[in-house]
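Hi U.,

Before I forget, here's the chain from the pilot set. I'm dumping it here mostly so it's searchable later in email.
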Amino acid sequence: NTPNYTFSSTEAGTISYGGACDSSKSSASANNNTITFNALNDGTTYSDCTITVTDASGNASDALDVTSFTVAIPPVLAEVTAVPTPTDNNTPNYTFSST
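Structure:
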């Protein structure tokens, strides 16, 4: 739920975020920059996220529209009760949990 996103900037500067996405990374370098979005909601589609870089002279880039994406966190399974040591029971019980 904290996806990475890479974008390119022609100048270094301060990053600002728009829409539902945010990140703790506040500065960009001239070249490729990878940011990690703050925690997002599972199953939610994000289509309004933007990134803007403002250089040292105060010139702001056009807002970069982040391509729409959906957060999909896979379930985590855990064993609760193992299959007992083999016996003459041919239908043993097995219990697990899922997030």
